[in-house]
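Researcher: Re-running this chain for the archive, since the previous output was lost when a drive failed. Same request as before.
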Amino acid sequence: MTARIVVLRVAPADPPFRVVEIDGQVAGTARDLTDVVRIAYQAGLTHVDLDDPTVVRWVGGGKYTWSRGHAW
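Model: Regenerated structure tokens:
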């Protein structure tokens, strides 16, 4: 089963962010875990288990990776 939410690697920006895709479409950018939950909620997903790999796939680092030092 493919995760509905994909959080891509940290973008080398100031401040750094991660692109969030839902069902293969870009849904927004996140700067922290709260943003991921907010984006999912706005897309109609009311319960998001950030630790469940069938729900969220973290690319280029886990849910605590939010800085450029972790990006590469």
